[in-house]
Amino acid sequence: MRAVRYHEHGDADVLQVDDVERPTPDRDEILVEIRAASVNRVDVLFRAGQYGDLPLPTIPGGDGAGFVEEVGADVEEFEPGDRVFLSGMDRADGGTFAEYAAVPAEKVAHLPGDVSWTVGAAIGNVGATAWTALEELAGIQAGDRVLIHGGSGGVGHLAVQIAAHSGAEVIATAGTDAARDRLRDLGATTVLDYDSDALADEILTATDGAGVDTVLDHRLEEYLSLDLEVVAEGGQIISTMGHIPETNGRPFYNKEVSIRPLKMDNHPVRRPVLDRLARLLRQDALTAVVAETYSFDTAARAHQEILAGGYVGKLVVTP
Ligand SMILES: NC(=O)c1ccc[n+]([C@@H]2O[C@H](COP(=O)([O-])OP(=O)(O)OC[C@H]3O[C@@H](n4cnc5c(N)ncnc54)[C@H](OP(=O)(O)O)[C@@H]3O)[C@@H](O)[C@H]2O)c1
Questions:
Q1: Is there a smaller number of Cβ atoms within 10 Å at the N or the C end of the chain?
Q2: Residue 113 contacts by C-beta under 8 Å, 6 or more apart in sequence?
Q3: Atom of ligand 1 nearest to the CA of 261
Q4: The ligand 1 atom nearest the CA atom of 306
Q5: 160 and 129 Cβ atoms separated by less than 8 Å
Q6: Of 200, 198, 197, 195, residue with least CA distance to 229
Q7: Whose CA is nearest to atom 21 of ligand 1?
Q8: Protein residue with least CA distance to atom 18, ligand 1
Q9: Residue nearest to atom 41 of ligand 1 (CA)
Protein backbone atom coordinates (compact mmCIF):
# COMPACT_ATOMS: atom_id res chain seq x y z
CA MET A 1 0.00 0.00 0.00
CA ARG A 2 1.03 3.66 -0.34
CA ALA A 3 1.78 5.57 2.84
CA VAL A 4 3.27 8.92 3.76
CA ARG A 5 6.29 8.39 6.02
CA TYR A 6 9.29 10.15 7.48
CA HIS A 7 12.57 8.33 8.04
CA GLU A 8 14.15 11.09 10.11
CA HIS A 9 12.87 14.05 12.11
CA GLY A 10 12.96 17.46 10.48
CA ASP A 11 11.05 19.98 8.36
CA ALA A 12 7.96 19.08 6.36
CA ASP A 13 10.09 17.96 3.41
CA VAL A 14 11.10 14.81 5.30
CA LEU A 15 7.62 13.50 4.39
CA GLN A 16 7.69 11.11 1.43
CA VAL A 17 5.36 8.55 -0.13
CA ASP A 18 6.55 4.95 0.28
CA ASP A 19 5.26 1.53 -0.70
CA VAL A 20 4.86 -0.40 2.55
CA GLU A 21 3.28 -3.62 3.67
CA ARG A 22 -0.43 -3.47 4.46
CA PRO A 23 -0.97 -3.93 8.23
CA THR A 24 -2.79 -6.96 9.61
CA PRO A 25 -5.36 -6.24 12.35
CA ASP A 26 -4.88 -7.81 15.78
CA ARG A 27 -7.83 -9.56 17.44
CA ASP A 28 -9.18 -6.29 18.86
CA GLU A 29 -8.45 -4.16 15.80
CA ILE A 30 -10.14 -3.11 12.60
CA LEU A 31 -8.37 -2.68 9.29
CA VAL A 32 -9.73 0.56 7.82
CA GLU A 33 -9.34 1.49 4.17
CA ILE A 34 -8.53 5.14 4.77
CA ARG A 35 -10.37 7.59 2.48
CA ALA A 36 -9.30 10.74 4.34
CA ALA A 37 -7.14 11.69 7.32
CA SER A 38 -6.73 15.04 9.01
CA VAL A 39 -3.68 17.07 9.97
CA ASN A 40 -3.28 17.80 13.66
CA ARG A 41 -0.71 20.10 15.22
CA VAL A 42 0.76 17.29 17.26
CA ASP A 43 1.63 15.47 13.99
CA VAL A 44 3.95 18.34 13.16
CA LEU A 45 5.55 18.18 16.61
CA PHE A 46 6.10 14.41 16.29
CA ARG A 47 7.61 14.89 12.82
CA ALA A 48 9.93 17.65 14.01
CA GLY A 49 11.12 15.45 16.90
CA GLN A 50 9.68 17.89 19.47
CA TYR A 51 7.15 15.53 21.05
CA GLY A 52 7.05 11.82 21.81
CA ASP A 53 9.57 9.22 20.83
CA LEU A 54 8.24 7.19 17.93
CA PRO A 55 10.16 4.47 16.11
CA LEU A 56 11.34 5.55 12.65
CA PRO A 57 10.20 5.40 9.93
CA THR A 58 6.83 6.75 11.06
CA ILE A 59 3.50 7.10 9.28
CA PRO A 60 1.87 10.34 10.56
CA GLY A 61 -1.84 10.84 11.20
CA GLY A 62 -3.96 10.17 14.28
CA ASP A 63 -7.49 10.24 12.89
CA GLY A 64 -9.36 9.48 9.70
CA ALA A 65 -12.39 8.02 7.98
CA GLY A 66 -12.98 5.15 5.59
CA PHE A 67 -14.45 1.71 5.00
CA VAL A 68 -13.95 -1.27 7.29
CA GLU A 69 -11.87 -3.72 5.26
CA GLU A 70 -11.38 -6.47 7.83
CA VAL A 71 -12.17 -7.03 11.52
CA GLY A 72 -10.12 -8.83 14.18
CA ALA A 73 -11.49 -12.02 15.74
CA ASP A 74 -12.74 -10.26 18.91
CA VAL A 75 -14.47 -7.34 17.18
CA GLU A 76 -18.26 -7.63 17.12
CA GLU A 77 -19.49 -4.10 16.50
CA PHE A 78 -18.27 -3.67 12.93
CA GLU A 79 -18.22 -5.59 9.68
CA PRO A 80 -16.48 -5.17 6.35
CA GLY A 81 -18.01 -2.38 4.30
CA ASP A 82 -19.11 -0.26 7.31
CA ARG A 83 -18.37 3.46 7.02
CA VAL A 84 -16.36 4.56 10.05
CA PHE A 85 -14.38 7.44 11.49
CA LEU A 86 -11.67 7.17 14.10
CA SER A 87 -9.69 9.16 16.61
CA GLY A 88 -6.63 8.74 18.82
CA MET A 89 -4.50 6.32 16.79
CA ASP A 90 -1.45 5.13 18.66
CA ARG A 91 1.20 6.39 16.26
CA ALA A 92 3.80 3.88 17.42
CA ASP A 93 1.85 1.31 15.36
CA GLY A 94 1.57 3.51 12.25
CA GLY A 95 -0.72 6.39 11.43
CA THR A 96 -3.57 7.19 9.08
CA PHE A 97 -1.65 8.85 6.23
CA ALA A 98 -1.80 5.46 4.53
CA GLU A 99 -4.20 3.54 2.31
CA TYR A 100 -4.92 1.19 5.23
CA ALA A 101 -4.57 1.48 8.99
CA ALA A 102 -5.08 -1.16 11.70
CA VAL A 103 -6.98 0.63 14.47
CA PRO A 104 -8.10 -0.60 17.93
CA ALA A 105 -11.89 -0.98 17.74
CA GLU A 106 -12.32 1.25 20.82
CA LYS A 107 -11.12 4.20 18.69
CA VAL A 108 -13.64 3.68 15.88
CA ALA A 109 -17.32 4.59 15.44
CA HIS A 110 -19.86 4.39 12.63
CA LEU A 111 -19.92 7.45 10.39
CA PRO A 112 -23.42 8.58 9.35
CA GLY A 113 -24.11 7.78 5.69
CA ASP A 114 -24.44 11.35 4.46
CA VAL A 115 -21.25 12.66 6.09
CA SER A 116 -18.30 12.96 3.68
CA TRP A 117 -14.99 11.22 4.29
CA THR A 118 -13.22 14.55 4.63
CA VAL A 119 -15.67 15.86 7.23
CA GLY A 120 -15.55 12.56 9.14
CA ALA A 121 -11.76 12.62 9.15
CA ALA A 122 -11.63 16.29 10.13
CA ILE A 123 -13.82 15.72 13.18
CA GLY A 124 -11.92 12.79 14.73
CA ASN A 125 -9.28 14.16 17.10
CA VAL A 126 -10.43 17.76 17.42
CA GLY A 127 -14.07 16.73 17.90
CA ALA A 128 -13.07 14.28 20.64
CA THR A 129 -10.98 17.02 22.26
CA ALA A 130 -13.71 19.67 22.12
CA TRP A 131 -16.33 17.24 23.45
CA THR A 132 -14.12 15.95 26.27
CA ALA A 133 -13.16 19.49 27.28
CA LEU A 134 -16.62 21.00 27.32
CA GLU A 135 -18.99 18.14 28.08
CA GLU A 136 -16.88 15.80 30.20
CA LEU A 137 -14.44 18.08 32.04
CA ALA A 138 -16.34 21.37 32.14
CA GLY A 139 -19.86 19.90 32.20
CA ILE A 140 -21.28 22.97 30.48
CA GLN A 141 -24.99 23.64 30.91
CA ALA A 142 -27.61 25.56 28.96
CA GLY A 143 -27.29 29.24 29.76
CA ASP A 144 -23.60 29.05 30.70
CA ARG A 145 -21.27 31.61 29.21
CA VAL A 146 -18.34 29.97 27.48
CA LEU A 147 -15.24 31.71 26.12
CA ILE A 148 -13.43 29.86 23.34
CA HIS A 149 -10.01 31.24 22.41
CA GLY A 150 -8.99 30.59 18.80
CA GLY A 151 -12.51 29.64 17.73
CA SER A 152 -11.48 29.22 14.09
CA GLY A 153 -9.04 26.39 14.88
CA GLY A 154 -9.73 22.70 14.57
CA VAL A 155 -10.69 22.29 18.23
CA GLY A 156 -12.16 25.80 18.44
CA HIS A 157 -14.69 25.59 15.61
CA LEU A 158 -16.06 22.30 16.92
CA ALA A 159 -16.11 23.63 20.48
CA VAL A 160 -18.18 26.61 19.30
CA GLN A 161 -20.77 24.26 17.80
CA ILE A 162 -20.83 21.82 20.73
CA ALA A 163 -21.22 24.64 23.26
CA ALA A 164 -23.93 26.34 21.18
CA HIS A 165 -25.80 23.05 20.82
CA SER A 166 -25.73 22.67 24.62
CA GLY A 167 -27.51 26.00 24.90
CA ALA A 168 -24.47 27.91 26.10
CA GLU A 169 -23.81 31.52 25.19
CA VAL A 170 -20.61 31.33 23.16
CA ILE A 171 -17.97 34.05 22.99
CA ALA A 172 -15.26 33.11 20.52
CA THR A 173 -12.13 34.84 19.28
CA ALA A 174 -10.58 34.73 15.80
CA GLY A 175 -8.01 36.67 13.82
CA THR A 176 -9.91 37.79 10.72
CA ASP A 177 -13.34 39.20 9.79
CA ALA A 178 -13.96 36.19 7.54
CA ALA A 179 -13.23 33.76 10.39
CA ARG A 180 -15.40 35.75 12.80
CA ASP A 181 -18.31 35.70 10.30
CA ARG A 182 -17.94 31.94 9.95
CA LEU A 183 -17.97 31.47 13.73
CA ARG A 184 -21.19 33.45 13.98
CA ASP A 185 -22.71 31.06 11.41
CA LEU A 186 -21.50 28.12 13.50
CA GLY A 187 -23.31 29.38 16.59
CA ALA A 188 -21.13 31.91 18.40
CA THR A 189 -23.15 34.70 20.01
CA THR A 190 -20.22 37.11 20.24
CA VAL A 191 -17.08 37.04 18.11
CA LEU A 192 -14.04 39.11 18.98
CA ASP A 193 -10.62 39.84 17.50
CA TYR A 194 -7.96 37.94 19.44
CA ASP A 195 -5.53 40.78 18.66
CA SER A 196 -7.69 43.46 20.27
CA ASP A 197 -5.95 45.44 23.05
CA ALA A 198 -9.31 45.69 24.80
CA LEU A 199 -10.18 41.98 24.63
CA ALA A 200 -10.83 41.56 28.36
CA ASP A 201 -13.15 44.60 28.44
CA GLU A 202 -14.95 43.38 25.33
CA ILE A 203 -15.57 39.97 26.92
CA LEU A 204 -16.85 41.58 30.13
CA THR A 205 -19.09 43.92 28.13
CA ALA A 206 -20.49 40.95 26.19
CA THR A 207 -21.44 39.31 29.51
CA ASP A 208 -22.85 42.50 31.08
CA GLY A 209 -19.91 42.49 33.46
CA ALA A 210 -20.69 39.04 34.84
CA GLY A 211 -17.79 37.20 33.20
CA VAL A 212 -17.75 33.72 31.72
CA ASP A 213 -18.39 30.40 33.46
CA THR A 214 -15.93 28.38 31.36
CA VAL A 215 -12.86 29.26 29.32
CA LEU A 216 -11.42 26.87 26.74
CA ASP A 217 -7.79 27.95 26.38
CA HIS A 218 -5.05 26.65 24.07
CA ARG A 219 -2.47 29.39 24.79
CA LEU A 220 -2.37 29.67 28.53
CA GLU A 221 1.00 31.42 28.61
CA GLU A 222 -0.61 34.26 26.66
CA TYR A 223 -4.09 34.30 28.16
CA LEU A 224 -3.98 33.11 31.77
CA SER A 225 -4.15 36.58 33.28
CA LEU A 226 -6.92 37.61 30.87
CA ASP A 227 -8.78 34.40 31.68
CA LEU A 228 -8.58 35.19 35.39
CA GLU A 229 -9.87 38.70 34.71
CA VAL A 230 -12.90 37.60 32.68
CA VAL A 231 -13.86 34.35 34.41
CA ALA A 232 -16.81 34.57 36.80
CA GLU A 233 -16.63 33.57 40.46
CA GLY A 234 -16.53 29.78 40.72
CA GLY A 235 -15.68 29.53 37.02
CA GLN A 236 -13.26 27.17 35.35
CA ILE A 237 -10.47 27.21 32.81
CA ILE A 238 -9.92 24.14 30.65
CA SER A 239 -6.47 24.14 29.08
CA THR A 240 -5.35 21.99 26.15
CA MET A 241 -1.72 22.92 26.63
CA GLY A 242 0.72 21.27 29.02
CA HIS A 243 2.42 24.30 30.50
CA ILE A 244 0.69 26.25 33.30
CA PRO A 245 2.39 29.63 33.79
CA GLU A 246 3.46 30.52 37.30
CA THR A 247 1.03 32.68 39.26
CA ASN A 248 0.84 33.57 42.92
CA GLY A 249 -2.48 31.77 43.16
CA ARG A 250 -4.30 34.79 44.57
CA PRO A 251 -6.64 35.34 41.59
CA PHE A 252 -7.66 31.66 41.67
CA TYR A 253 -8.36 31.97 45.40
CA ASN A 254 -10.25 35.24 45.18
CA LYS A 255 -12.72 33.95 42.63
CA GLU A 256 -12.52 30.24 43.51
CA VAL A 257 -11.52 29.49 39.93
CA SER A 258 -10.36 26.02 38.96
CA ILE A 259 -7.99 25.14 36.18
CA ARG A 260 -8.23 21.78 34.49
CA PRO A 261 -5.61 20.57 32.02
CA LEU A 262 -6.74 18.18 29.31
CA LYS A 263 -4.41 15.63 27.74
CA MET A 264 -6.23 13.44 25.25
CA ASP A 265 -3.61 10.67 25.57
CA ASN A 266 -5.28 10.03 28.93
CA HIS A 267 -8.59 9.38 27.14
CA PRO A 268 -7.69 6.47 24.84
CA VAL A 269 -11.20 5.00 24.52
CA ARG A 270 -12.81 7.17 21.87
CA ARG A 271 -15.87 5.29 20.62
CA PRO A 272 -18.37 6.73 23.15
CA VAL A 273 -17.29 10.28 22.28
CA LEU A 274 -17.31 9.59 18.55
CA ASP A 275 -20.81 8.10 18.90
CA ARG A 276 -21.98 11.33 20.56
CA LEU A 277 -20.41 13.36 17.77
CA ALA A 278 -22.04 11.08 15.18
CA ARG A 279 -25.40 11.79 16.80
CA LEU A 280 -24.82 15.53 16.42
CA LEU A 281 -23.75 14.98 12.81
CA ARG A 282 -27.01 13.13 12.11
CA GLN A 283 -28.98 16.00 13.68
CA ASP A 284 -27.10 18.54 11.51
CA ALA A 285 -26.01 20.15 14.79
CA LEU A 286 -22.32 19.68 13.96
CA THR A 287 -20.01 19.73 11.00
CA ALA A 288 -16.33 20.26 10.34
CA VAL A 289 -15.14 23.00 8.05
CA VAL A 290 -12.62 21.48 5.65
CA ALA A 291 -10.47 24.40 4.61
CA GLU A 292 -8.26 22.49 2.16
CA THR A 293 -7.70 18.93 0.97
CA TYR A 294 -4.24 17.64 -0.01
CA SER A 295 -3.04 14.42 -1.63
CA PHE A 296 -0.40 12.11 -0.15
CA ASP A 297 2.07 13.68 -2.58
CA THR A 298 1.36 17.17 -1.21
CA ALA A 299 1.06 16.18 2.48
CA ALA A 300 4.18 18.23 3.26
CA ARG A 301 2.32 21.38 2.22
CA ALA A 302 -0.48 20.50 4.62
CA HIS A 303 2.09 20.20 7.42
CA GLN A 304 3.37 23.69 6.54
CA GLU A 305 -0.05 25.29 6.18
CA ILE A 306 -1.29 24.19 9.61
CA LEU A 307 1.51 26.26 11.14
CA ALA A 308 0.77 29.24 8.88
CA GLY A 309 -2.90 29.28 10.01
CA GLY A 310 -5.28 31.94 8.68
CA TYR A 311 -8.10 29.54 7.76
CA VAL A 312 -11.17 28.19 9.54
CA GLY A 313 -11.35 24.52 10.46
CA LYS A 314 -9.18 21.66 9.30
CA LEU A 315 -6.72 20.51 6.67
CA VAL A 316 -7.32 17.04 5.30
CA VAL A 317 -5.21 14.58 3.31
CA THR A 318 -6.66 11.95 0.99
CA PRO A 319 -4.87 9.02 -0.70
N1 LIG B 1 -4.06 18.54 25.15
C2 LIG B 1 -4.50 17.80 24.16
O3 LIG B 1 -4.71 16.61 24.29
C4 LIG B 1 -4.75 18.50 22.86
C5 LIG B 1 -5.65 17.95 21.93
C6 LIG B 1 -5.88 18.66 20.75
C7 LIG B 1 -5.23 19.86 20.53
N8 LIG B 1 -4.35 20.34 21.45
C9 LIG B 1 -3.65 21.61 21.26
O10 LIG B 1 -4.61 22.61 21.24
C11 LIG B 1 -4.21 23.64 20.37
C12 LIG B 1 -5.30 23.91 19.33
O13 LIG B 1 -5.41 22.75 18.51
P14 LIG B 1 -6.10 22.87 17.10
O15 LIG B 1 -6.10 21.51 16.53
O16 LIG B 1 -7.38 23.58 17.20
O17 LIG B 1 -5.04 23.78 16.32
P18 LIG B 1 -5.29 24.69 15.04
O19 LIG B 1 -6.35 24.06 14.18
O20 LIG B 1 -3.97 24.92 14.43
O21 LIG B 1 -5.90 26.05 15.62
C22 LIG B 1 -5.16 26.97 16.33
C23 LIG B 1 -5.96 28.25 16.37
O24 LIG B 1 -5.32 29.20 17.21
C25 LIG B 1 -5.54 30.46 16.62
N26 LIG B 1 -4.63 31.48 17.11
C27 LIG B 1 -3.45 31.91 16.59
N28 LIG B 1 -2.96 32.94 17.33
C29 LIG B 1 -3.85 33.15 18.33
C30 LIG B 1 -3.89 34.08 19.40
N31 LIG B 1 -2.93 34.97 19.62
N32 LIG B 1 -4.96 34.02 20.22
C33 LIG B 1 -5.95 33.12 20.04
N34 LIG B 1 -5.96 32.23 19.04
C35 LIG B 1 -4.91 32.25 18.20
C36 LIG B 1 -5.36 30.20 15.15
O37 LIG B 1 -5.90 31.27 14.42
P38 LIG B 1 -5.20 31.78 13.07
O39 LIG B 1 -5.51 30.76 12.03
O40 LIG B 1 -5.83 33.10 12.85
O41 LIG B 1 -3.71 31.86 13.33
C42 LIG B 1 -6.10 28.90 14.99
O43 LIG B 1 -7.45 29.13 14.72
C44 LIG B 1 -2.88 23.20 19.75
O45 LIG B 1 -1.83 23.76 20.47
C46 LIG B 1 -2.92 21.70 19.93
O47 LIG B 1 -1.64 21.14 19.95
C48 LIG B 1 -4.10 19.68 22.61
A1: N
A2: 83
A3: 1
A4: 20
A5: no
A6: 200
A7: 153
A8: 153
A9: 309
Q: Is 41 in the pocket of ligand 1 (CB under 6 A)?
A: yes
CA of 48 to the centre of ligand 1 (A): 18
In the chain the first and final C-alpha atoms are separated, in Å, by 10
Q: In tens digits, what is the pLDDT along the chain, a chain of 319 residues? A: 999 999 999 999 999 999 999 999 999 999 999 999 999 999 999 999 999 888 999 999 999 999 999 999 999 999 999 999 999 997 777 899 999 999 999 999 999 999 999 999 999 999 999 999 999 999 999 999 999 999 999 999 999 999 999 999 999 999 999 999 999 999 999 999 999 999 999 999 999 999 999 999 999 999 999 999 999 999 999 999 988 898 888 889 999 999 999 999 999 999 999 999 999 999 999 999 999 999 999 999 999 999 999 999 999 999 9
Residue ranges of domains in the chain, CATH in brackets: 2-111+289-318 (3.90.180.10), 129-264 (3.40.50.720)
Choose the residue to mutate in 46, 148, 218 for probing ligand 1, maximizing ligand atoms within 8 Å of C-beta. 218
Residue 68 one-letter amino acid: V
For residue 149 and ligand 1, the question of a CB distance below 6 A is answered with yes
